[in-house]
Write a structure and sequence with these properties.
This protein is an alpha+beta fold and 567 residues long. It has three domains: 30 residues, no CATH class; 206 residues, Acid Proteases (Cathepsin D, subunit A, domain 1), CATH 2.40.70; 242 residues, Beta Barrel (Cathepsin D, subunit A, domain 1). The chain is built from twelve helices and 26 strands. Strands 12, 13, 14, 15, 16, 17, 20 and 22 form an eight-stranded mixed β-sheet that branches. Strands 2-3-8-4-7-6 form a six-stranded mixed β-barrel. Strands 19-18-25 form a three-stranded mixed β-sheet. A hairpin with a 6-residue loop joins strand 16 and strand 17. The chain is globular.
């Protein structure tokens, strides 16, 4: 097929141009400039604070931290349930487009998605992906179907779509007059996105998007309908978890910025593509992951009798436009790309001669402190390799799990100066019990050419990941799902001159807030002893993870290797 250059669609080619009409980079004349001006004015009207005229930096920050960020009349609360896959993946529904099913038209296409605070866009497995047509992809990983959706478009506005249709008609007329036999087709825009588990190649489109689904979560009726929202259809990927039977089809970015930044994938920031949070008018959202002290280790989610063991892996909750009542811990976000905070202290009091605190974010490892990213897409706690090795050696975690009750809490702090908040995590947050196969083949088995023998065993190991990245804030740490199981985290977006911030609430295993007031009320009721006993027992119960699930646990690509990175 000959590639013709007959008209411009007003789109940007990112990479990997496919067959079709050449797309020239054009943004004038399609309403881009005027539309952006209107949006900017709207944001300025919507997002204003009493702090805007305060010139002193410290006083301005103090003012911003005191703002309660109340919801507007149009910002309604709604929750997406996050289903748990063996403590290493949490996924909730997202609705993208429609399809025809059982003779019914315009049935919503619903996909299980990883809601990722470390990225900014929506990507979904699609029927364009040939490798996704194998037996490893089942009902747990549905594929987006463009051809059956009545709301799909290649264009962000109806005016562009109309203009392109006219130009396509004109192109076909010219080809017919030339009698060349060539074809006129729309150019597609492609890009490569790189995640911790591998790269994906995608095609951009626009669809009607809605967070959550009619199948689960509270307040779905409050979830806004977003027509012509940009998304990416995955047509090829190198993510092993998907080929191994992962439980999600989409990745949904919840990064802190209003517009999609250039993360190295070729995005053109001059396009000013709004993020999902901005387009959906989400002022703040919260994440909390439930935890259980009695998970059942299983190689699959199905028990031997065929019944589901899903209850062994408790769900989490993602609440958009979450209310933020009075809370004990509030920290300013200092990251420009990530939900990152300043950290000056991270370690544990180990049983050494002086019972000293081993601080792997102290002067021995970091002169000016560290950066901590609170990330919903990372399964474990990630920290500098040399620091982890030193801490793990001091902790002395035994493989047979026999010293769990003698292990200390992790202690760390977020923020700076008078706005520093202190946190702790029990051993259950940083020790995992992993099921694995141990070879028991003997010498006689080998000499007699017998099949190799294995037996299942479980061992306790540290739940840390090595991360060797530096930043302008110091060495980088990632506080992943292990942290979100113990602290409900509310992410608050920037409001004009006020930077983003985060609220942290200590919670029990059911995501109920735990504080001194609640313990006092239970004390008055005469049952605080049992609550304390439950908390103590749970604190020393290692997190259950299967070896197969751990195979898909990797750092984000930006965090791999060594060197500096912007946070």
């Amino acid at each position: 097929m000959t590639v013709l250059s007959k008209f411009a669609l007003g789109l940007s080619v990112l990479s990997g141009v496919t067959q079709g009409l050449k797309v020239e980079q054009q943004r004038e004349g399609f309403g881009f400039g005027q539309k952006q001006t209107i949006l900017q004015r709207f944001r300025e009207l919507k997002r204003d604070t009493p702090c805007k005229d305060i010139k002193d930096k410290d006083k301005h920050t103090e003012c911003c931290m005191k703002q309660s960020n109340p919801l507007t009349e149009n910002q309604k609360e709604y929750t997406v349930e996050l289903r748990n896959f063996q403590n290493v993946q949490y996924y909730g529904d997202i609705t993208i487009g429609t399809t025809t099913k059982d003779g019914n038209k315009d049935v919503p296409q619903i996909f299980p998605a990883i809601y990722d605070t470390g990225s900014f866009e929506i990507l979904v497995l699609s029927e364009l992906c040939e490798q996704c047509q194998t037996e490893n992809y089942d009902d747990d990983t549905p594929l987006y179907t463009q051809k059956h959706s009545t709301t799909f478009s290649l264009f962000p506005t109806s005016d562009q779509e109309k203009r392109a249709a006219e130009e396509l008609k004109k192109c076909k007329a010219e080809v017919k007059a030339d009698n060349s036999g060539d074809q006129c087709v729309y150019q597609t825009v492609e890009a490569q996105h790189v995640f911790g588990s591998g790269p994906v190649e995608s095609v951009r489109g626009y669809e009607t998007v809605r967070m959550g689904s009619v199948n689960g979560g509270e307040g779905f009726q409050n979830s806004p309908v977003l027509p012509r929202f940009p998304f990416w259809q995955i047509k090829r990927h190198a993510i092993e978890a998907w080929d191994a039977g992962a439980k999600f089809s989409a990745i949904v970015g919840l990064g802190p910025r209003d517009f999609v930044p250039d993360m190295g994938g070729g995005e053109d920031e001059s396009e000013q593509v709004p993020t999902l949070l901005d387009k959906a008018d989400v002022n703040k959202f919260s994440i909390c992951l439930q935890r259980s002290g009695n998970q059942v280790i299983a190689s699959s989610q199905e028990a031997k009798d065929g019944s589901s063991q899903q209850e062994a892996w408790p769900s989490g909750y993602l609440t958009f436009n979450a209310h933020t009542p009075q809370t004990e811990k509030l920290v300013q976000v200092v990251g420009e790309v990530h939900w990152a905070v300043k950290m000056h202290h991270f370690g544990a009091k180990v049983n050494n001669a002086n019972n000293n605190m081993v601080n792997i974010c102290g002067k021995k490892y970091a002169d000016n402190g560290c950066a901590a990213i609170i990330d919903s897409g990372t399964s474990l706690i990630a920290a500098p390799r040399s620091a982890i090795e030193g801490l793990v050696t001091e902790l002395g975690i035994k493989e047979d799990c026999s010293n769990m009750k003698h292990l200390p809490n992790l202690e760390f702090s977020f923020g700076e100066g008078d706005m520093t908040e202190h946190f702790s995590l029990p051993p259950s947050a940083y020790v995992m019990r992993v099921e694995q196969l141990k070879e028991t083949t003997g010498i006689w088995d080998w000499l007699l050419a017998q099949p190799r023998k294995f037996q299942e065993e479980t061992v306790c190991v540290p739940a840390f990941m090595p991360l060797d990245k530096d930043s302008n804030l110091g060495p980088v740490f990632i506080m992943g799902m292990s942290f979100l199981r113990h602290y409900k985290t509310t992410y608050v977006r920037a409001i004009k001159s006020c930077e983003p911030k985060m609220y942290f609430d200590r919670v029990d295993k059911h995501c109920n807030k735990v504080n001194k007031a609640s313990l006092l009320s239970h004390l008055n009721a005469g049952n605080s002893t049992s609550i304390k006993a439950d908390l103590d027992a749970e604190s020393y119960m290692p997190m259950e993870v299967t070896a197969s699930a751990l195979e898909g646990v990797k750092l984000p690509t930006w965090a791999q290797g060594s060197g500096s990175v912007g946070v």
